[in-house]
Structure to design on (280 residues):
């Protein structure tokens, strides 16, 4: 794991003598140095866009918003330096068992993002998650849709939905920080232009498949005003998104490992039941 250099720390205003220490969670590439969290930025255009967006969002009693830090070198300012970006550190820890609170924090964030136009890079992003998202929504084809029976069954269960898209955070569950005193904070924004219910469905799928949340609870987690069939369709797409990601990361694997399918089966059966469709 690469370490932010002394020059990077100095550019972001970290006091001399303050060392950077690796942080747990995420993709394992974030470092804390005093009041800042630093991490590599793969796409400079996306990183600058994200910083400008969050600079203008308001924190409140319902949600804390992370603030980007500018790098200053030779009188010039930028949102990145030598491939790194920095954000103000926020106290708290994720708690994947607090699913309803995660969903509430997501709603608070999405209410702040309502009306924000999608950036152009979203439509040409090529990383595995972006590719899997397009597969989940039927906007792109992939061998996994025919090579894997489980994924093919989920894809066949998709029906049209008429929910309005907006800018959403597509990876909420592990990126909401809880604190005993402060409001929740949402970090590591993963942008998608989809219905807010889809972002909620991804968090629910992650909780059921990886953190032992009961699949039987899924029906009661639907966003307010959403009927069961539409919520089931969001869950189907969320499952496709997560499973297709495995394939786009490892395209040599034609079918999912049996243990991985078993992990996702209870969630899939409940999603199809809610959608009013037969099981896989």
């Amino acid at each position: 794991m690469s370490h932010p250099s002394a020059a990077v720390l100095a550019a972001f205003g970290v006091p001399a003598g303050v060392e950077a220490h690796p942080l747990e969670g995420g993709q394992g590439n974030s470092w804390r140095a005093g009041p800042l969290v630093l991490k590599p930025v793969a796409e400079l255009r996306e990183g600058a866009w994200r910083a400008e967006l969050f600079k203008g969002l308001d924190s409140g009693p319902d949600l804390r918003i992370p603030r980007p830090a500018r790098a200053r070198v030779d009188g010039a300012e930028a949102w990145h330096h030598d491939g790194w970006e920095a954000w103000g550190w926020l106290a708290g820890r994720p708690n994947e068992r607090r699913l309803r609170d995660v969903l509430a924090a997501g709603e608070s964030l999405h209410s702040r993002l309502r009306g924000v136009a999608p950036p152009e890079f979203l439509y040409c992003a090529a990383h595995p998650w972006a590719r899997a998202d397009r597969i989940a929504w039927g906007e792109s084809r992939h061998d996994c849709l025919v090579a894997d029976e489980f994924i093919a069954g989920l894809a066949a269960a998709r029906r049209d939905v008429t929910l309005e898209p907006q800018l959403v955070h597509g990876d909420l569950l592990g990126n909401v920080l809880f604190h005993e005193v402060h409001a929740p904070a949402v970090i590591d924004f993963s942008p998608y232009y989809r219905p807010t219910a889809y972002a909620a469905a991804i968090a629910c799928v992650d909780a059921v498949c990886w953190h032992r949340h009961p699949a039987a609870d899924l029906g009661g987690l639907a966003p307010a005003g959403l009927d069961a069939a539409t919520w089931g369709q969001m869950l189907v797409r969320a499952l496709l998104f997560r499973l297709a990601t495995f394939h786009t990361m490892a395209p040599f694997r034609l079918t999912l490992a049996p243990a991985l399918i078993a992990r996702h089966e209870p969630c899939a059966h409940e999603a199809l039941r809610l959608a009013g469709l037969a099981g896989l």
Residues 88 and 235 are 33 Å apart (CA to CA). The two ends are 41 Å apart (CA to CA).
